[in-house]
Amino acid sequence: MQGTIDSQTTAITADHGHEHPDFRVLGLLVFLISESLMFGGLFAAYLLLRGMHAQWPPEGTEVELLVPTINTLLLLSSSFVIHYGDVAIKRDDVRSMRKWYWITAAMGAVFLGGQVYEYLTLGYGLRTNVFANCFYVMTGFHGLHVFVGILLILGVIWRSRRPGHYSAQKHTGVTMAEIYWHFVDVIWIILFTLLYILTRF
Amino acid sequence: MAQAQLPLETPLSLPGHPKAWKWYDYFTFNVDHKVIGIQYLVTAFIFYLIGGLMAVAMRTELATADSDFLNPNLYNAFMTNHGTIMIFFWVVPAAIGGFGNYLVPLMIGARDMAFPRLNALAFWLNPPAGALLLASFLFGGAQAGWTAYPPLSTITATTAQSMWILAIVLVGTSSILGAVNFIVTIWKMKVPSMRWNQLPLFCWAMLATSLLALVSTPVLAVGLILLLFDINFGTSFYRPDAGGNVIIYQHLFWFYSHPAVYLMILPIFGIMSEVIPVHARKPIFGYQAIAYSSLAICCVGLFVWVHHMFTSGTPPWMRMFFTISTLIVAVPTGVKIFSWVATLWGGKIRLNSAMLFAIGLLSMFVLGGLSGVTLGTAPVDIHVHDTYYVVAHFHYVLFGGSVFGLYAGIYHWFPKITGRLLDERLGILHFVLTFIGTNLTFLPMHELGLKGMPRRVAMYDPQFEPINFICTIGAFVLAFSIIPFLINVLWSWNKGKIAGDNPWGGLSLEWTTSSPPPIENWEVLPVVTKGPYDYGIEQRKGSTNENEEE
Question: Which of B168, B181, B188, B6 is nearest to B92 (CA)?
Fold first, then answer.
């Protein structure tokens, strides 16, 4: 009985294999599939509710466009800004990576500020009607993701204060924060289309 | 083969080699996949006992037609939490978290999962979630069944219902993190000498399970969070009087909860594909068919959920579509069943406890599958919807299927996990009691359902009393069947016969290390030279490797 086993294990590899390649980026991408489905569920619920109502949004609910449009442009451009940070770290330029990441975090913060401003000035609250329910839950949930994205970026900036923590060869954390930020951006584009643009038609 | 001359017990103390874990390591944030696997299994088993006691209490109530043992609210709370615990706190964590974590790295020749700390985090989300669920009994316990359909869930025992939701969202998060970990581990961390077609079928099943959990669990989370908002923050997603729609909840819920059935059975199918060939001493029949049918179930399984909603005002075209897709999903399942039967055919079968439970599963799951096919067709489903026929069906699938499979897995891998064999006599007693108990409890429920007894009730029409009494006796047999098992596990863990590295003569990689495996699984990583199910093939080639001890 033992013989069958040893035939499998005779060959010996020298290395102990304690280290394996870094799979964190792959792990994040797999996780983001799950996140997309979470937003996907919200979008599906929203579209089903929208399909049920003859008038959408209901009478008396006016959707603001000015602040959200500015916000959208801000968030879209921040995706380019953060990419400059990634380009910088690939050139081993930690200082300019930090600069671009600071700018991205600031743009994210302004986006959240704009969101809060919109919440405070809108003519409807969370409970007003089903559209308002969807509006606040969806934008709020997305805002939470923007907040997490800002925390990730600040985390990268915090870690990069130590010289040599990130380099042209070793910058997984920087890349992951960037990927997450792009994801949040893409979700916003769909959200903006559904909640703002399509309510105009 | 110089190393074969060393006695197996010789401790190979390499410099820097860590010692074994102490008992208290199992109560900490430990990142070893084997510790986490045991943590999952033991925690889940405790919840199984709790959920089982709830079931016994319900069956005691149902022994007579009147409400005389539990008050109706407590009955509803037990009914809700029995289902919730058995699904989210027993079968899913035991099969995926327990066996998955313990076995996947060992089977693919890895030293741990891809993200060990994430793995530990995923486990440690479970105890607080369970505590939250049990604490909800202080507020009356959730009343709306494990499906938590609004409007019932938005108006009854709202505090307990909210705690229920948070508990499920916590275990859901755990499930997603686990899925990410399994996908990356199986995809990337196979020992270099292992090709995809040498991957043990349990790992194929875990890959399919994880993909399914990854895409379906977040949708449940959304559905439940919207429910939480409706209960606590005055929104009206599911309030028809304020422009909402209850059907949306059902879609979001079943988009997860139908695949959840596969989350509970795919890993079990994986266990079956490991247990059967080893104890039949034959190569598995249709390796590729079994591997790909797991993926097929994973894909098709995402598009059958509306068969739970045939009576929810579903339009005819939808009933048609989902009836067809439901019948299609029976095909890959049948492929597996026939492959196992073909593996057993002409095998040199060892009828030990693991194999008995595996064959028990095979027979019971076929029954559950057949009632599933009848339920999947809209005309029959509309007739027996929400009757005991449904209860009979899913207990054949989940008890006769998943729980039998978990038992088979425990008997099969207990020697690997603890280094000691379980006692066979107690194991066979356990199997006999479980098999009789299961059929005594759940077989008569088919008749109850077809005669029209509704499920989820504490009181019923007295004409159903005799059959219900039989079910209650069966439930007590099942409750007592746990006793020999518990004695067996507790005794064997300390005093059982020493198992050795490979008591069953298995060929998959987990049997190449010691029992229990050292902290990083192998001193030297194994090299795969043949498939995991090549039983008897070597002898035909006239190999020269048969010159060791024994």
Answer: B168
